[in-house]
Specification:
CATH class: Alpha Beta
CATH superfamily: GIY-YIG endonuclease
Radius of gyration: 13 Å
Distance between the termini: 27 Å
Oligomer: single chain
Largest sheet: 3 strands, antiparallel
Number of helices: 4
Structural class: alpha+beta
Amino acid sequence: MMNYTYILRCRDGSLYTGWTNDLTKRVAAHNAGTGGKYTRARRPVELVYFETFPSKNEAMRREVQIKRLTRHEKLALIQKNNMESKQRP
């Protein structure tokens, strides 16, 4: 089973970072208002970044690392990822 660390952009422009083992289901839960207290009042949310990991512990460690980044650093991470995915065939 794959594990994910992800960043959501909320309706108010804020960023939320979390981890899960079912990314599609978790994003749907956030948009349904059952995913997290923070995102409940900031719906809809949009998935803007994710990384995959073979273990839950790795995903949780990366979540903590990302949460420690400044907003500017998180936005740079998202932008870099978007640029790399546009360059793939």
